[in-house]
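Chain A, query sequence.
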Amino acid sequence: MQIWLPFRRAASPTTARRRILPALATAAVTALALSACSAPTTTPRGPEFFDWADVQIAADGQTVKLWMWGGDDQGNAYVDDVLAPAAAAQGVTLERVPIADTKDALNRVFTELQAGRNTDGAVDLVWINGDNFRTGKQADAWFCEWTDLLPNMTLVSDSDPLLTEDFGTPVDGCEAPWHKAQFSFVYNEATVPNPPTTIEGILDWAEDNPGRFTYPAAPDFTGSAFLREVLYSVSGGYENVPSVYSDDAFAELSPALYERLDQLAPSLWREGTTYPATSEQLTKLFADGEIDMMMTYGPATLTALVENGTLPETTRVLTVEDGTLGNASFFGIPSNSGNIAGAMVVANEALSVEQQVAKADPAVWGQFTVLDLDALSADDRALFDALPQSPVVPTFDILSQNANPELSAEWVPALDDGWRTTIAAR
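Chain A, predicted structure.
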């Protein structure tokens, strides 16, 4: 049985907007009060290693628990069948711990640190990025200054902005890159023979084709990203939206976003009276033919979903002239892990050419590599060049043309809360 979140549209966006900032202020005070109870005030830095040989000796025989979102079957299979055996060959047992939300891992770390469990936490490694990374860093919950020890970090560009900052938060050696992602719009070319090529064009198409488009409810990760895409569009481009959040910038720029989404709502699936609660529910609507377009921050999974018949064979990823949001996923090590060395070995192995090539294969997972291809040897570069091309997903260099930078993480909850106040709530 499918479960949808019932929302009623705001009757008056003008009135609702006046309530956004007070609501956000209340939410901020509440969040601070909660964090004061749950987040640690100080945390241990973890062990010190002088060189990679030191790390390898300490890692031998350790069991590393990787906490990661469990909703991606290909990602689960990659970790279990490809990455884990490679880690085992180096003396480290890798165990995947599936979770419904990355916040679950961070909350577990906070709870343990608050209880004084500082050296033997249940979380050794986390697939993470964005607001969760920022929150953990502010609480000093991550082990830092470790990535420079990874031999395979030499294969990663030290000037790539997607890898040096995470939603505006400096990485500072507190997480190691894993793969890149590009927000993507997806359409069925059998029912949309002439797809739009701009964000505003997509919204116009939705209004011209009532009931055939929708987006996930914030704070779903994909739904939140859609809000940022539309914010850039109605603001005349990402250049006109300051990456650093401020109440003044929010008050100036967000009204146009919510007005455009309010205007769009009657043309959405079920007339905007309800929204998919998750990106998985959005994908099912597309698979069932109830909508003709969808969106994803994980286009890597689309090839397999088409091949196994979940999605129609006419599924295609849209190339957007405005560009779309791009980011990277990382591995973070909690400061209270008892297997920090083993976690470092896993993160280093995940950055190897062999693992990055395997993960980039559409038949395995199809994720975009974080390695600097121009810095690789001719033989290693040839391994990437020989990868099969997906008929569904363009290559990263095409998909990331005119890529938009992510806003700082503080923008995300503010825009989500504003959406709930102006579009969804009442």
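The longest strand covers residues 175-182. The chain has two domains: 5-27+184-324+403-424, 45-177+330-357.
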